[in-house]
Amino acid sequence: MHAHQDKNTAGSGELDAASGVALAAAPAGNPGPLSALWSSLVAGSEVSARTRRAVLDPDDGAIVAEVGLADPAQAEDALAAAARAATGRYSWPEDRRAASLLNASRAVRERNAEFAALIAAEGIKTLSEAHAEVKRTAHTLALSAAAVHRAGPGVPSAGDRPTTRGWRAGLRQEPVGVVVAITPFNDPLNLVAHKLGPALAAGNAVIVKPDPRTPLSALLLARVLLDATVPPDRLSVLVGDGELVNQLVADRRVRFVNFTGGRNIGALVHAAAGTKRTLLELGGVCPTIVWEDADLDIAVPELLAGAVAAAGQNCLHVQRILVHRRRYDELRERLAAAIGDVRLGRKDDPNTQMGPLIDTAAKRRVSTLLDGARHAGATILTGGRETHSGYLPTLITDLPDRAALTTTEIFGPVTTIEPVDDLTHCLHKANSGDGALQAGVLSRREDVIEALVAGLDTGSVVIGGTSDHRSDALPFGGTGQA
Description:
Elements: E1 3-6, E2 37-38, E3 41-42, E4 45-46, E5 52-56, E6 63-68, H1 72-87, H2 94-110, H3 112-122, H4 127-147, E7 178-182, H5 190-201, E8 205-209, H6 216-227, E9 235-237, H7 242-250, E10 254-260, H8 263-273, E11 277-281, E12 287-290, H9 296-308, E13 320-324, H10 325-340, H11 360-375, E14 379-382, E15 394-397, H12 404-407, E16 414-420, H13 423-430, E17 436-442, H14 446-455, E18 458-463
Parallel strand pairs: 1-18, 2-6, 7-8, 7-10, 8-9, 10-11, 12-13, 12-17, 13-16, 15-16, 17-18
Antiparallel strand pairs: 3-4, 5-6, 14-15
Helix pairs in contact: 2-4, 2-6, 3-4, 4-5, 9-10
C-alpha cells in the first residue's frame, strides 16, 4: 500500500546509519569553540562517567565536546526508572502530556540558532540544513502534542447473536510501557523527536540511545523536554556502544524497540529483541523516475538538491535516477554540469552546498562501492574523488543491471542515471532491489503516474518531486528489507 505524497506538502529529506557501532578510541584533535563536558541522562539527571568519548567535527576532526558513556549500572537505573513510570500509566494525564510537548516545540523553535549550531558542529549538515532540521523538529513535537487527543478506533458492535444482544464493546488505547529508541547520526535531532514525541504523547517511558558520534543534539533536546515538565522517570538518554544496545534491547521490561539505522545492525537489534515488538527503518535505494514529459528546468534543481543533501547520508537520497530514453542525453548533460558546480566548504559558510561524510569508515564505504562500479564498466561523469573530509558529488552512468550500486544504499554523494524505454522496463529496474522507502515521479501524465504508483515496490511515492521529500505528518515506512 502506498502513502502518496505531493512534494508541496513535504519537508526536506531524512536518515540512516549503523547506530550501534562499536566505540573506538577517538583520534587526537584540537578543542573546538563549543568544547564542553556532556553527560548521559538517567531519569532526567546527569550521571558521572568513568569513560568519556570525544565528539569530533567531521570537517576537520576538531573536538566539539566530550560525552560520558553510560555504564551497565546506569543503564539498569534507567530501565528501573522507566519501568516504575510505566506502571503508573495514568499518572501523567493527557492534558499535561500535550502541554509538555507543545511547550517543548516552542522552546526548540525559539532556540533554533543554538540547536542548529550544535547539529552542524557535531554532524554532517551545513548550517542551513541544520536550521531546516530544527524547524522540522519543532513541527514534529507540535504534531505529537496534537496527537495526544486524537480520537482512537471507533467502538465496534458486540454482534447481533442472541447471547450478545445488549452488550457493549469498547476499545481503549494503552501505552505499551518502556520504549527503547535507537537513532542514527544523520538527523540527530528530528529523528530523536520522531521517536520521543509520539511515544511520550501515548504516555510511555522512553530510553533514547543516540549514535555516539552525534549525541549532543539528543541530550539538549532531552533537557528541553524536561524543562517542559516531562516527568524525569519517563526520559533517559544513554550514550554508549553495541553492548549498551544489547543490554537495553534484551531487557524483559522493555516492551517496544524503535530503531533507525543500517540493515546489518538492524538485524542484530531484531534478533536481540526476541519476541518484543520492534519497528525497524533500515533504508534502501530510492529511485526517482523522470518521464519524457518532465520539465527539466524544474527537474534538474530538484534532482541536484536530492543528490547532495546531507552529502547523500540520507535514507531518501536521490541515488538512482531512471529517465525516459528520449530525455536521457539532455538530462545527463545538464545534471552532470550542475553536480560539477556544487560548492564545497565549511559547514558554517552560507555558500556551502554540501558538507562532509561522517567519518573515515564512510569514505571507505563510498570508495569501495565506486571502485566496484568502475570495475563493472560504469562511467564517472563528474566527481568520483575523495576530498579531505568526504567525497566530491558524483554522477555515474553505464551501470550494469544488478551492479552493487543499483541495490546497495551507498550513504554518500553518489547518484546513478540510467535510461529506460517504457514503463515495464522502468519498473523492472526500479524494483530490482529488496525494498525501498520511497520513490519520486517527475511526470504530469496521469496514466504514467497511476502505473508507477501501482507498480513501484516502495513504501510511498512522491508525485511531482524526487524521492528526497518527506512530510513529518504522514506515516513513513518501506517495503521488503527497508
